[in-house]
DNA sequence: TCTTGCCCTAGAGTTATGTCGAGGGTTTAT
DNA sequence: ATAAACCCTCGACATAACTCTAGGGCAAGA
């Protein structure tokens, strides 16, 4: 009926260490323990851990994820706060996507230069220019 | 003809501390010094710092950026290595973009639930289910 | 010339996110 | 009943990427 920490590690791709670390940081307050003190993860727990991983993948800080988890634990009264938090994260993701698109353009621009037949010549000319600029700056 | 570290900080958005840190890490071997030992940045320096920032924004590690800078400093003989390095980074960016798109879908899915008129009801039902699942797991 | 503001280095301190080892209890299969 | 394989906590260690402080030199205006 429940999963051990090892099984959850395998299912999520997180290490056992990381899961325990997350628990210590207050990200997993919903995880129960058995008589021996072992963590017992339910299917629902896996679902919210999945959400935690999703937020993590968008570079949300652990302290902010804890805030979200706390809202979830607090029940429906915090829906407004959850919307605010997720909307802010949504905006961050959109911004990051846009930035990545621009970064990609620059990388492709560089790759095009390097992969062109005139690459060696282009680079040598650039190096010459840099050299002259450095020389000129010494005056 | 050249820029001070403060001016470069303003132009790039990096802090003076960060610029000096990057220099210490070997990311700025091309920056010259004046008689007093002050760094003097040329226009070309700004250009490669821009590239460094671009790679940084795609989460490339400083040690890998240093590798790239070293290749650039070494001249046209390293074009093949630069292509390999940038191509690998390109693949990483594409993967990250795809992941962000998926994360965004999940965030939007959650937001839809929270913003629907039945949000409170949906959440209370989910909480009830979680509760029962936890109860059942105790047996 | 004196003050203010900028520059330098070396190295300590910080933050975030893990990762691991020691010491000890539990479960399972033989 | 015993070994192997788990689980636990606590706290130390690691790593990356800054961030800042102390102590001291340089530069430009009043």
From TrEMBL, chains A, B:
PROSITE patterns: HTH_MERR_2
GO molecular function, one term: DNA binding
Alphabetically ordered keywords of this record: DNA-binding
Organism domain of life: Bacteria
Keyword Ribosomal protein: no
Domain HTH merR-type, chain residue ranges per copy: 2-71
Pfam families: MerR_1
SMART domains: HTH_MERR
Name this polypeptide is given: Transcriptional regulator, MerR family
Species assigned in the record: Pediococcus damnosus
